[in-house]
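Hi, does anyone understand the following?
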Amino acid sequence: PDLEGLRDVVVTADERDVYVAALTSETVTMITRTNDGYIWADSLTAGPVQALAITDDESTLYAGGMHGLKAYSRDTTGQLTELTSWDTPVNGLAIAGDWLVLTDDEALVLCTHGSDGLNETMRIEDPTLAGISRPRFTADGNFVYAVAYDTSTVVGWRIDDSSLVEVARVSEQPGLASPDDLAITPDGQMVYVTGFCDRDIGIFERD
């Protein structure tokens, strides 16, 4: 009952804990691994949440939706406790080191995160990227990619100091008809994009 309208999943590095964002149920649900397999552990009311991201040290989980953004502390057992919240609308989240990127359909925002909260360093608002969502970092944390659903586009930026420099943009290619998610291989060589309307996967090689 707490998993209706699944939108995002985060798995800890040791694969012990799984956190699931459920838009319709308005929950963040924790599933944990035991000797008998994975079992439900807890569900927190989080509003119509669409995106999750966990810090590199796995001590903080962010959960966002168009209603706002919440930060939860995570203890050694995997349990979550709400720390703070913001009214910022969110439809996508990604974290790499001290960087946090969020999207909200109209903009992609680069922030630093830490004990002093979120500090915006750059915002990109571009009409040709309407419906922007699903930001993803490369493993080295130096590049971030996102998809724009309304304009059938995938775009990438390099993080340069506290700025974003666009390095790639592809539109109207097979697999990009209303893209709704993307994934980057661990070695950073390939980008996979799912096209909702053409029911296809676009495969792109990075140089």
